[in-house]
Specification:
Layout (H helix, E strand, L loop, with lengths): L1 E5 L13 H10 L4 E4 L11 H7 L3 E2 L1 E6 L5 E6 L2 H13 L8 H4 L3 E3 L5 E4 L12 H10 L3 E4 L9 H5 L10 E4 L5 H7 L7 E4 L12 E5 L6 H6 L7 E5 L8
Parallel strand pairs: 1-2, 2-3, 9-10
Antiparallel strand pairs: 4-5, 5-8, 6-7, 11-12
């Protein structure tokens, strides 16, 4: 039971209640056993996540939601922190040097495992990095990670909304739909989606949102490679949903 799209206090659109430990506690209450924090263009809260998750017997993937040069949101996942750190450095260095305005966009807070505020990210994370979709996918592949286009049914910041199609040269094992999206209806609207495996996660910005949509992956070990292998058999994947407030970024 995996919810792999969760925003923490580091995302300016995320609630200040979304500290790493509160996220893990809520995930445990919701019955999830695999989660990922996917903040916008940043990873600084991930370094505190692993030990917390171990204490609650929850597995994690290291994640980040990247906004590419084309203004497409791509969810990226890795087994190892060193791998995601290398990709993040490339993405972060190419973010515009625009200072965050908390009164408009919200605070970007780095919080440790004991809910202490470590620091504030001053560069606005809600911008496009000067990295193309193709380049990002190559970086993720080099680090043996997984890239999933986010909320493809959205009219903004989605690969279909921005490009109108999915580049054939880029291989995506999965595409994410929002928790309100009906799989049959979107496939009818875009018949080419029959060729892809759809997954859904919460895109949580509040604690109550965690687990409102999740995907069951039938795997022995919660690794990137094992999850990729489920794309070969649709019977190994199932989307499930429950109640929650609406929010999409």
């Amino acid at each position: 039971m995996a919810d792999l799209h969760i925003h923490s206090t580091l995302s300016p659109c995320g609630s200040l209640e979304m500290s790493p430990i509160k996220i893990v506690e809520r995930a445990k209450e919701s019955g999830l056993n695999l989660i990922s924090i996917t903040d916008h263009n940043s990873i600084q809260n991930l370094q505190y996540l692993k030990n917390i998750a171990l204490n609650y017997n929850i597995d994690i993937l290291y994640g980040m939601e990247v906004q590419t040069e084309e203004e497409v949101h791509i969810l990226t996942y890795f087994d190892h922190y060193d791998s995601i750190e290398r990709v993040w450095k490339y993405v972060y260095e190419r973010l515009p040097n625009v200072k965050n305005r908390p009164e408009i966009f919200g605070d970007q807070v780095i919080v440790d495992e004991n809910e202490n505020i470590v620091s504030f990210e001053e560069k606005l994370l809600l911008n496009s990095s000067k990295v193309t979709l193709e380049k990002l996918c190559h970086l993720v592949e080099e680090e043996e990670g997984l890239a999933i286009p986010a909320h493809i049914d959205s009219s903004t910041y989605s690969i279909i909304g921005q490009l109108g199609f999915i580049p054939e040269a880029l291989f995506f094992p999965f595409l994410e739909i929002t928790y309100t999206c009906n799989e049959a209806e979107i496939t009818k609207q875009f018949p080419f989606l029959e060729n892809y495996i759809l997954v859904s996660f919460s895109d949580a910005h509040y604690l109550s949102d965690i687990g409102r949509s999740f995907t069951e992956f039938w795997v022995e070990t919660p690794s990137i490679n094992a999850i990729k292998c489920t794309a070969k058999d649709r019977n190994l994947i199932k989307i499930k949903r429950q109640g929650g407030s609406k929010w999409l970024t």
